[in-house]
Every structure is written in C-alpha cells, then in structure tokens.
Specification:
The complex is a heterodimer of chains A (about 250) and B (about 475). With about 250 residues, chain A is an alpha/beta fold. Chain A contains eight helices and twelve strands. The relative contact order of chain B is 0.10. The longest helix of chain B has 15 residues, at about 50-65. Chain B is built from twelve helices and 23 strands. The chains are: A alpha/beta (about 250), B alpha/beta (about 475).
Chain lengths: ~250, ~475
C-alpha cells in the first residue's frame, strides 16, 4: 500500500529526514516511535504533502502512485488521512458544512454524486458514535472551543467519516486523559479492516496497549534505526530511548 | 424561492456570470447633463410639476457641490457630461401584465435568476415579490395585486409618483435631502426609477419584497431611488440585488434609499451587491456611490441593514440609521469583499437622538489581491439621547500581501449616560487552516470559501434564507484565485 524509499526532507533548509525506508501493507498497523525531534511528525507531514517541508530525495508510492505528483487534497481523496497532532480551529465553519464539503470532494474524485442530506446526517450520527461524541457536534464550528480531548476525538470522527485506506495518527495520544485515550483507541480499532492500514506515531507505549501494532519502528535522527514486533515497544517503555542512542554511538 | 438553485448554479459556474448584454431596442437620450436633461427625464416620465421642481432644485444645488475627497479611495476623474442619464428599453404603453413585457427582457431576468412569472401557489404565502429595474426604468413588478389586498403598495417609483403623489411628496427627501451630499443631489436631479414600498398600520408584509437592479446599456448611469415607509406596527423585509454587463469602461451607479419606520415598525433591508467589479487588472467596473439612510421616527421602531458587498470597482456607501424615536433600534451588518483592484469605503452612521436607543454594528471586511477595503463609521449620541447604547465590531481579514484593510471609527458622544463599545481585529487568512482543509480533500479555493464564509457567518445569518445560500456562493466566487 505504502512504499517509502530513501526519503530525505528539509524544513527551512535543515535536513530532518535522512533516508527513510518503510513499507506498509494492507491490514497492518505500524507504530513509529522515537525521542523528541527524531523526525516523526515531519514524516507524517511529508506523507500528506504539507508545503512547509521540502522533499530533496527519495520516492513515496501510495497504491502504486507516486504521491509527489499528487496535491495534498488528492492524497486525501486517494485515501490518506492524517490525524493532526494539533488540530486547527476554523471559526464559523460548522462541522456539518466542513464534513459535507470534504465527503463530497472525495465522492466527486471517485465519480460519485454528492451525498444526500438525509444520508449525510445518518452517516454523521453513525460515525459520531464511534468516538462517543454528542449531537451538538454537528452545529459546532470545526474544533472551535473544543477541549484537547475533544479535538482528538474529532480527528478520529473525521477519519471514520472519510474511511481512509491509510490513517496516520500523529501523537494522537498526547494530551489525552485515560478515558479519552480509551475512546480514541477504541474508535481506531473499530475502523480497522483487512483492507486498510495505519501508521501510529507516538512517543509513549501507552497508546499501543490499546492499538496493537504489527510492526514497531524506532526513528532516530531522521532514520529508522530499529524495526521489530510489538515487543520492541515494551522494551522502549522499560529502558527509554537511551540504549538506542548508545547503540548509535551517540552517548 | 424556487429559482434559487438556478441562481446558485449560475453563480458557481465561473467568474462574473452576469456579464452578458441584452440586445434590445433601447431609447436613450443624448449624453450630458444640464437643466434641459433634467426636464427631458421628467417629461419622459410625464411627471407632475412638483416632481420637476424637486429635480431642478436638486440640480441647481448639485452645481454648487464638489465630489467628496475624504474617502480612502482613488477615484479617477468622472466626466459627468460623458454619461447617458436616461436609457429605457422600448415598450408599449406601461406594461400591465406579463404579456406586455418584451420577451427579450423576460429572458434577461430569467437568465439572472429573477422570476417575473408569478407562481400562484407562492402568492400570499411566502416567496418573493420582485420589482425589476433595467437601466432607467422599472420593467415589471410582481405580486402587486396580492399585496394591494392587504393595503401594501409595492410599485415602481414612477408609478407611485402618479398613483400616490401625496405619500411620495410627504416622504421623498425627508430622510436623505438633496442637500445631503454630492451624489444625493445628483440622484435627486436625474433619478429615473426605483421602488416604492408602503406598509400600512399594523400590517406584516407576508412576503419578501425585492428590487433587482440591472444596468444594460453602455455609457449609462443608473440613478434609482427606493422609498420604504412602514407605518405603526408594520413589518417588511426587503431585498436588493444588482448586476451589470462586463465592460471596459466604468459606469456610474448613484442611488438613494430612504426608509421611514413609525411607531413599533420594523424594516429589514438586505443587499447583495454584485455589480461588475472590473477585470483582474482593474479595468472597467461599476462606481457604486450610494446614500442609504433609515429614519426610526417612531418610538420602539427598528431598522436593520444587512449588506453583502462583493461587486463594483469602487464602493462608497454608508447605510445609516437616525434613531429619533425613544427606544428605537438600529442595526448594521456588513460583509464587504474586495479582490483584484477593487476599492471599498463602506460603513455606517448611527445617530442617537431618542432616549434608550440602541445600535449594533458588525462589519467584516475581506480584502484580497491588490484591493483596498475601508470601514468608516460614525456613532453619534446627541445631548438628549439618555442611555444610548452602541456596540461596534469591525473585523478585517487579509488574503494577500498586497491588499489593504483600514478602519476609521468615529464617535461623537454628547451625553454621558451613553455606553459605546468598539472592538476591532485584523487577521490574515491562516495557512494552517487551509492545509487542514486540503488534508480532508478540500481544494484550496473551496477552503478559502469555507473559511471566509465562516468568518462572515455572523452577518450571513442575518440574511433571509432565500438570499443566504446565494450570498455564500457569491463570497466564494468573488475570491476565486485570490490565494495560493
């Protein structure tokens, strides 16, 4: 589904990603862990085409397509979804209008007619339940006045609405209390199918107790330095990142 | 409004969709303005002596005036002798039914999405009555008879001069005197048509009334007047729309709107102004110099202005309220969008004369391209206006690095019991917001439309339903290509 080959990327002229290789297959959940500043969020941003980052080398194929040929909106329409670490507030734009615009763009891309009002509201209702959000959601403005936990739940709600092939969760657990964490993780697990995949970016192992990864990678200084099964997450939880740094000959 | 979907598809399918010209036999008088021009216009309309006198007085006063220079606008010199002051689609004796209206005109308004066919099931229930004005004359007023049953007068201004001279004489110029300003004097001298609305005591107008202004003929100025009178306990919601063909030269539109609200009367006046704004390089477009004012004459009366301004090359317009009656209320809700080389200097005046009067001002300016967008407002509290209250909120949103947003709020408070609040913000459209939308599959263009509509929502919510959807689309369209 996703193949990243020798990916290098800069922000403001500084190289952050220094040759990433990663392959994700349908049905898999990959966790990307690593200390702060290792490039985890940069990787997520580059995948979805954030214009703040410049790709200097490498290749990313998503369902066989070179994604550097695709605009950020087309990557979304192709089925790539990012749950933002810091979801943006858009005052005055109701969730209904926002989601309908997004959904209809996806439908149009796939040659489908715009969704009918009743079907849309039904879908909203159904997907809202995935993250236990109440019916006030529809009339509220996008993320405006949402608590940290609500924002993250709203991300997963949008993910449920758009039903992506590849979901990228960027520090979705940060700032969540244990209840919100459970709700968010629950939502992600409900959306799991053998056809879709997820990349879970996290600093802590905590989230991975709820969302079980198939593969765990450690990103350090812009490179993936370790790849193993779920047991790697536990090892990191126990030992911290220092032993990785040591292995890399940094300390 | 049944045809709203047509309007929407029309509006959404590209740039300025109303730029076409109707090929119709038009009677025009020679270019230029002198006393004789005024007499010709009056004669064309077969006007009574008092109307001609009014015009001549205005014309003579106009000669003594200079164009105002205080607005934050760069207005190229206007040659008032190079304008045609009267252009009328040729017709038989005053159209009485739809059959008498030139099919070419019906087609034009059809194309503009303005229904001139009355639909039986709409009559008297909801829907909208329309007065359609092309160049200098009213082409057709719908639902006149249904409204007349309730004592409501809704007709072209010319007809009102003939059929209701007492009312017109009583109120004409009572809110906006021909002495008010340069453009008011000009309009008072040469105005050719417009709408007249009279809602008698205790009547709630059962449908939205609207006037649709269309400029068609080249080199022609449009000078129309609207006069709305709401007697005690009356209510009316009135809408105004306007478009013009795309032309390289600038055309002048100088209108006057006067509103009088008596005891406990309420008038809502909404405008979606979409005059041709000129092309990307600032060539052509309408000069829109308009004087709009409402007089809250009676106690507990209320006048509310809502405007969505997206068109015109230059806009100079300050819909205002004179709060004369005790406990009267004035409101001004505005969204003004400027793109490319458009210029707007717009705002309001709230003049508190009565006791316990209240006014609210919400202005949302949106500037893109190389445009200049100014809010200019005056809140005045007279010595006897005990307990006056005003809240003003003026926000500016910038969409490019080359545009300008300016705020000129004035307050003149002569009574110390007044409470005046003013809030203002200026912000730039946020790239993170746009990227967030992109990531959800929404294109940048559509994202800008969404964000801008969200920003303007407080004002858009004040528009009647029939207009709101159209206005939302219009906002997005006006800003196409302005970001990214």
């Amino acid at each position: 589904m996703l193949q990243i080959k020798n990916l290098h990327a800069n922000i403001n002229g500084k190289e952050i990603l220094k040759g990433i290789n990663l392959t994700v297959k349908p049905g898999e959940i990959h966790a990307i862990m690593g200390p702060n500043g290792s490039g985890k969020s940069t990787l997520a941003s580059v995948l979805v085409g954030n214009p703040a980052f410049e790709v200097t080398e490498g290749e990313i194929l998503f369902n066989g397509k070179d994604i550097f040929d695709l605009s950020p909106e087309d990557r979304s329409r192709e089925g790539m979804f990012l749950s933002f670490q810091y979801p943006v507030e858009i005052p005055g734009v109701s969730m209904v209008n926002f989601m309908r615009a997004a959904l209809n763009e996806h439908r149009k891309y796939n040659g489908l007619e715009p969704v009918s009002a009743s079907d849309f509201l039904k879908l909203m209702r159904e997907k809202r339940a995935v993250v236990e959000m109440d019916n006030k959601l529809s009339s509220r403005s996008v993320n405006e006045g949402f608590s940290g936990g609500e924002k993250k739940r709203n991300e997963i709600f949008q993910m449920a609405m758009l039903n992506p092939k590849l979901a990228i969760l960027d520090e979705t657990d940060s700032g969540l209390d244990i209840d919100a964490l459970r709700i968010v993780a629950n939502g992600v697990n409900q959306l799991k199918t053998p056809e879709n995949a997820a990349i879970v970016i996290t600093h802590y192992q905590r989230l991975l107790e709820y969302i079980k990864p198939d593969v765990v990678h450690v990103l350090y200084k812009g490179r993936i330095v370790k790849t193993a099964g779920p047991e790697l997450a536990l090892e990191l939880e126990e030992k911290g990142y220092d032993w990785i740094k040591k292995e890399m000959g940094d300390e | 409004m049944q045809d709203s979907t047509d309007i929407i598809s029309e509006v959404t399918s590209g740039d300025y969709k109303y730029g076409f010209v109707t090929n119709i036999d038009t009677e025009v008088i020679a270019k230029g303005l002198d006393e004789n021009t005024v007499r010709i216009i009056s004669a064309k309309k077969n006007e009574p002596e008092w109307m001609l006198e009014f015009r001549l007085k205005a014309y003579r006063h106009w000669l003594t005036l200079e164009m105002p220079t205080w607005p934050h606008l760069t207005i190229p010199k206007i040659d008032y002798q190079d304008i045609i002051y009267y252009a009328a689609p040729k017709k038989k004796e005053g159209p009485k039914s739809l059959d008498d209206v030139d099919p070419e005109l019906l087609k034009t308004f059809d194309k503009l999405g303005i229904p001139l066919h009355e639909r039986e099931h709409l009559a008297g229930v909801s829907g909208m009555a329309v007065d359609a004005v092309m160049d200098s004359v009213s082409v057709k007023t719908t639902f006149k008879e249904n409204l007349a049953e309730k004592g409501i007068i809704f007709s072209s201004f010319s007809e009102a001069v003939h059929n209701h001279p007492d009312l017109v004489q009583k109120y004409l110029g009572s809110v906006v005197s021909y002495r008010d300003n340069f453009f008011a004097a000009l309009n008072s001298a040469v105005f050719s048509d417009g709408s007249f609305v009279f809602i008698p005591k205790g009547v709630r107008c059962p449908m939205e009334l609207s006037t649709y202004f269309r400029i068609n003929t080249a080199n022609t100025g449009q000078f129309e007047r609207t006069l709305i009178v709401a007697e005690d306990d009356a209510y009316v919601s009135y809408l105004e729309g306007c478009t013009a063909p795309m032309r390289d030269e600038n055309q002048l539109h100088a209108a006057i709107v006067e509103i009088i609200a008596l005891e406990r009367a309420e008038v809502k006046y909404s405008t979606v102004q979409n005059w041709y704004p000129g092309d990307k390089d600032g060539k052509g477009g309408i000069y829109n110099f308009v004087t709009k004012r409402g007089l809250c004459k009676g106690d507990f009366s209320k006048i509310s202005w809502t405007q969505v301004e997206t068109g015109s090359a230059i806009t100079w317009k300050y819909p205002s309220c004179i709060l004369a009656g005790d406990n009267s209320v004035g409101e001004f809700y505005s969204v003004a969008v400027t793109n490319n080389y458009q210029q707007a200097d717009t705002g309001t005046k709230m003049v508190h004369l009565g006791r316990n009067t209240k006014s609210t001002i919400v202005s949302k300016g949106i500037s893109a391209g190389h445009s200049q967008n100014s809010y200019r407002g005056l809140v005045k509290v007279s010595p006897r206006a005990e307990n006056a209250r005003n809240h003003s909120q003026c926000d500016s949103l910038l969409l490019s690095d080359h545009c300008g947003a300016h705020t000129f709020p004035y307050a003149d408070v002569q009574n110390e019991t007044a409470v005046i609040e003013h809030e203002a913000t200026t912000s730039k459209i946020n790239e993170d917001q746009i990227f967030y939308c992109n990531q959800r599959g929404i294109s940048t263009e559509e994202a800008v439309g969404l964000i801008v509509n969200g920003y303007a929502r407080e004002v858009m919510n004040k528009l009647p339903m029939e207009f709101a959807v159209e206005a939302q689309k219009l906002l997005s369209i006006s800003l196409e290509g302005s970001v990214g």
